[in-house]
């Protein structure tokens, strides 16, 4: 008489473990190749910008692994863990804030029309030498300029995007970036440590139902930056795209992102109920990041970013 081995796995458990391993591989593949997913009905946009959040699938998979058990299951779980750690883990570790001798303090915020004056005042009080604001409400340019008259007397504004500076500004130019009306600008900031070419932009909105205008603006801005021969370049503003968005890739290739000086990603929108996307950026070339802080200022739905730039690097 033969007896079945007590260690023999049931067919259903074997299938469950195989399916679990396939889920682990699928999550890892999604994180690595999210930019290759066809952007049908806005799926690509959603997956790209939520890519870091795919890591939330790992705790769910862990719970399943505890149910199906088996060495192969836990080895399979390591695949998305390693992939997420390599792709996004370094960004979660804070970069040390330092105070270089040749420092430039730059701040940016989408003020959501109504918070321009308060944002300008608080960012100036925080030490920002150059302040760029987006979505400035009608009539606020003069109010902001009056508020900053003693500390940031130099200004340049195009449409709803403006720059106020403690240093003289020159060679100012509006940029429509293919939108048909100006929603970006570039200007040279004449600092004590040389000229810095500053780009600031408020990219068009991106929704699953349509983001063509934003895509065109990002591509045009990236082309401007790539063709720019300036030694020191900084781009700051509301790009309406996270660093994992496929249409942000040309900007990421042309400029280096400022490093966040706190744990986690520099999520800037929305402020309520919690920040989920990092769509505001400070980027640079020919200089280096010495720190990046996030600040809740005014009643805007965006956090402000305050960057310390090392101009001697």
Let me know the number of strands: 12
Mean pLDDT: 94
**Helices and strands, in N-to-C order?**
HHHHHEHEHEEEEEHEHEEEE
Q: How many individual helices?
A: 9
End-to-end CA span: 80 Å
Note the beta-strand portion: 25-35%
CATH topology of the largest domain: Deoxyribonuclease I, Chain A
- As for the number of domains, it is 2
Which strands sit side by side, in order, in the main sheet? 3-4-2-1-12-11
- Give the overall silhouette: elongated
Helix content: 25-40%
The largest sheet, given as strand count, sense and whether it forms a barrel, is: 6 strands, mixed
Structural class: alpha+beta
Radius of gyration: 23 Å
CATH H-level homologous superfamily name of the largest domain: Endonuclease/exonuclease/phosphatase
Low-confidence stretches: none
Task: Please give the CATH architecture of the largest domain.
Answer: 4-Layer Sandwich
The top level CATH class name of the largest domain: Alpha Beta
List its salient traits.
single chain; 313 residues; alpha+beta; Deoxyribonuclease I, Chain A; 2 domains; 6-stranded mixed sheet; 9 helices; Endo/exonu/phosph_ase_sf; Endonuclease/exonuclease/phosphatase family protein
Summarize the structure.
This protein has 313 residues and is an alpha+beta fold.
Question: How does the SSE layout of this entry go?
Answer:
Layout: H1 11-32, H2 43-49, H3 57-68, H4 71-87, H5 89-92, E1 103-113, H6 116-125, E2 130-136, H7 140-147, E3 154-158, E4 161-165, E5 169-175, E6 184-191, E7 194-202, H8 212-227, E8 233-238, H9 249-254, E9 256-257, E10 280-285, E11 288-295, E12 304-310
Parallel strand pairs: 1-2, 7-8
Antiparallel strand pairs: 1-12, 2-4, 3-4, 5-6, 6-7, 8-10, 9-10, 11-12
